[in-house]
Structure formats: C-alpha cells, structure tokens
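Shapes recur. Our protein:

. . .
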Amino acid sequence: MIILSVAAVAFRRHWTSIIYVSLYPAVLLFWKIPHLIYRTRSWIVFLGAFNLAASFFRDFKFNIVSKTLATIAALVALLSTSGPTTTAALIVLHGILAWITFRTVKFSLTPSRFLLLQRKFIDRTSEGAIINQITSIKPELQDEGVEKFDRGQFTTFHTTLSVAVLWHKGIYFWAYQLERYRQSATLHVFGLASYLWLFLQTVFVFSLTNYALLRIIPSSFNFEEKPTYVKIFWYSLSSLFVNGIDGLSPRSDLAIGITIFAGFAGPFILAVLVLHFIQSVRQARQDADIRAAVGAMKDVAHRLDDRLRVEYGVGADEAFVRLQSYGRNLISGVIEFVALRIPSEFESGGNEKRDENRSS
C-alpha cells in the first residue's frame, strides 16, 4: 500500500495522460472515428463505416479466434528454437491464411450481407407488432360515439399520425441513401481493400515462414551476411512476384519449395484480370442487390402509405401538410429535416409505378 501511495503521489500529474493512453483504443473507436465520420457530413461515408462495423461484429467470433491464434502462432514462429513447435505454428498460420483467402473470394462473389441485413431489418420492423401499434389509430379513437376529440385524444391522434409519417419518410430516406451508396465508388474501394489486406497478410505469413526457416536451418539459404527480418520481408515480397533479391537466395529443397509456393500465391491474389473479373461480378451483383433492397424498402413505404389512407383517410404527404398546420414540434421538425433530403423524383417514381400496377 505504501508503494502504491508513493507511486500515486509521484505520478499524480500524469494520471490523465496514463488513463488516456491506456484507454486510447476505446477513445479511437468510440470517439475519434465517429467524430471524423460526422465531420465529413456524408451519408455515404456513414454507410461505408456501418458496413465495416456490421461485417466485423457479424464475424466477431471468427475475427477474435483467428487473430488470437495468428498472434500466438506468429510469436512462436519468431521466438521458438524447437523445430517441431515452429513447424506446428507455421502450419496454423498457413491454415488461417488459406481460410481467410477462401472467405475473401467467397464474400466478393456472394450477395452483400450488409444489404441482406438492411432488408431483414426493414421487413421485421415494418411488419412487427411494435411499429403497427405505434402507427395505428387507437381503437378508442375510432369509436362511433366520438364526434370530436378532446385535448388528450387529439394529442394521442396527433402523435400517432406523426410517428407514422416519420416512419414513412424515414424508410424513403434510408432507401435513397442506399441508392446513392450504390452509385458511389465505395463498393469498389472495399473490394480492392479486402484483396490488398489479403496480400499484406500473405506477405507477412511467408516472411515469418522464411525467417523461422533461417533461424532453425540457416543453411537453407545462400547469403553473405545473416539477413535481418526486414531483408527477409523484402525477399518474401519479391518471391510473390517470382523475383529474387541480391545477397539472399534459397538453397535447400524446402526453401525452394516455399519460394515456388509463394510464386503461385502472389499471382493468384494480384492477377489484374482475375481481380477485375471479381470486381465486375461483385459490382453487378451489388447493383442488383441494392436495387432489390431499395425496391423492398419502397414497397414497405407504399404499404404504409396505403394503410394511412385506410385508417386516417390521407396519405403520408397530405398528413405531413396537415400536421404542420397544427403547429411545429420535435417530431414534425425531424420529419421536415428528413423529407427535405429526399428528392421528389425518388418518391414520385415509386408512386407512379404503384399507380400503374393498381390500374392494371
């Protein structure tokens, strides 16, 4: 206790800095990055960040387990002097790399889980009991004996209708932002970033493999002076492009085999034509997926608008105009904020198509 007390007094001026440094990952994740996203004032950036967060937490167990195993295996490969132990660690690293490669290619060719999540959320919430309850007229207000609302009944009616209009505009707003997200280059950037990250992990795993082989069996390589890890990293990077470097070359069959394997792995990841094909297929699929998601959201908004016409006798747009005539409040302010950011043609296009379907 005396030692802790002395240390506390000695470092009392640095408590704030120590706490800030120790909590910096949390500060970065929950303050720095959100603040940076907010400063961009771009919904496309927000959706991109939301996409990354959703992907990370959806695969949270895999990310934690794979990164933990990879870290332990990398430390063993760097520090262990036992051949069998190092070999086992390298097998784990290459197994994780192979699985990550498979997942990267798989997710680049399959429909976006981010978009599926949006559709499921809209479908479940729109058809759920909670949304129906807070957007429908209360039974007591539909009683034939009620000729004129009293103050409490009017407040309930006003609030319910406001929430219904807000939900209607909110669905259109979210659908419009997804449409803008589709038209941006964000999907291409994410696709390229995923393959770049895979390439960096591949270089790291092969550099650890060569470095461990150098430590355990130095005669596996030809060199004038013992290379550092930086030189091994450069050598591994060059081997992915089927190139060599001065002052270091493979000598044993095992080292040559690793170099040949790297020579196949590099072109597989970085081949321009394959990457272009994958990104083209992904973009076509993403376009179709986003259009389907946007269409599904518009359908939900259309059904809500129809329900408003049945229950309230007016559509969402006319209801909003009438709500404004009753005075402004927080909900009407939010509705106006959202409505002003939805182009009229985005809503009118869906309404015209719905009218055509009705007439046919």
About this structure: The CA atoms of residues 17 and 23 lie 10 Å apart.
